[in-house]
Amino acid sequence: MDFDVIVLGAGIVGVSSALHLQDRGRRVALVDRRGPGEETSFGNAGLIECSSVVPYAFPRELGTLLRYLRNQSTDLYWDYRALPSFATWLARFWWESSPERLAAAARDMLPLIRQSVAEHDALIERARLAHLVSNKGWMEAFRTPAEFAKHVAAAEVIARTHGLHVAPLDSAALVAREPGLEAGFCGALHWQDPKSIVNPGALTKGYARLFEEGGGTLLIGEATTLRAEAGAWTVQTASGRLSASEVVIALGPWSDRVFAPLGYRIPLRAKRGYHMHYQPTKPMLSVPFVDAQEGYVIAPMEGRLRLTTGVEIARRDAAPTGVQLERAEAVARSTFGLGKRLDPAPWLGLRPCTPDMRPVIGQAPRHRGLWFAFGHNHHGLTLGPVTGRLLAEMMTGATPFTPAYPFRPERFG
């Protein structure tokens, strides 16, 4: 039960990190309390989002802030009981979202975003998972002509700057392309470069299977049992105690349960979100749709439609509210032809977020052999494989494909 590296967390980031370390000759144990891809990596909208070159920021427009303050919007719901624990984090998030700092965050994230599809493609081919992939991009749909026109202009600049492909579609062209779409949108931007996954949980499990086929060890265990003992790191699992000289914390929104007892004060918070599957009553959508003004996503998932909500600010372990799902469902039902609900209850997931909109990737500054890979905000699926590559390059002494300085853990003090 001795390994070179223990990776804690079998979501998309942890599995990808384990694979890349294994590819570089490390003996790796991958440990989670559940099976691979059964938490955050299971419930997202399935987008490998190479066109989102600007991170999701705290809004600065007065009208948007007033709308959020009323707490009646579809894209954001906040529980007043959680606000005290989020106050400092939200203040830092607002400060980091100024135009200058947001632009800096976009520059720092660009190398990861730009490489995201290629890194997935390599693993998808090796893991024989092409049947889970759609290469048709996604739609960013708008309900008012003014918003559509504003975003068309901005999208054309982004596309020219970053070599992306985007096609504006008016309402007639949109309905002609998607005959199952009812009235509601005046137009959409078809972002053509991203890919989508019709079963994100199965993708992560497929990557984990590839890891095991390569000789990797996958175990059920409790990450909070991590201890530093006699120059090594140990973790207790259902199969016994593991030992390794290095350990990676890749536990997504639960990472703080391990790094906080070690003395690290990284401002990680979980933005909650829901999904539900529906029987389609119209012809199936060909691509995922983002309702840009209401803030939810409808994605085709193996013959079903998955509705994923925006952000809920609530305590991580609070009981589900379902408020956002009810609001989004009311808006989306007629537009997308949502039939009966197919899940016994809404799925609730957690997005691990940092206030500066950058993940934490790198070596812990005060513990030998301790590494971090978490905090990917809304892009964990997109950035899993590219994070695994960057981390593995750092851990094995290779030259990283891009500087990792913007993601260093010590940037938070």
Structural commentary:
This protein has 413 residues and is of the alpha/beta class. It has helices at 12-23, 62-70, 83-96, 99-127, 145-162, 171-177, 200-213, 256-259, 323-336, 380-395, and strands at residues 2-8, 28-32, 47-48, 76-78, 133-134, 138-142, 166-170, 187-191, 195-197, 217-220, 227-229, 232-237, 240-249, 269-280, 289-291, 296-301, 304-308, 311-313, 338-341, 347-353, 360-363, 370-374. The protein is built from ten helices and 22 strands. The strands form four sheets. Strands 6, 7, 8, 14, 15, 16, 17, 19 and 20 form a nine-stranded mixed β-sheet that branches. Strands 1, 2, 10, 11, 12, 13, 21 and 22 form an eight-stranded mixed β-sheet that branches. Strands 3-9-5 form a three-stranded antiparallel β-sheet. The two termini are 35 Å apart. The mean pLDDT is 96.
Note the topology.
Blueprint: E1 2-8, H1 12-23, E2 28-32, E3 47-48, H2 62-70, E4 76-78, H3 83-96, H4 99-127, E5 133-134, E6 138-142, H5 145-162, E7 166-170, H6 171-177, E8 187-191, E9 195-197, H7 200-213, E10 217-220, E11 227-229, E12 232-237, E13 240-249, H8 256-259, E14 269-280, E15 289-291, E16 296-301, E17 304-308, E18 311-313, H9 323-336, E19 338-341, E20 347-353, E21 360-363, E22 370-374, H10 380-395
Parallel strand pairs: 1-2, 1-13, 2-10, 4-18, 6-15, 13-22
Antiparallel strand pairs: 3-9, 5-9, 6-8, 7-8, 11-12, 12-13, 14-17, 14-19, 14-20, 15-16, 16-17, 21-22
Helix pairs in contact: 1-7, 1-10, 4-7, 4-10
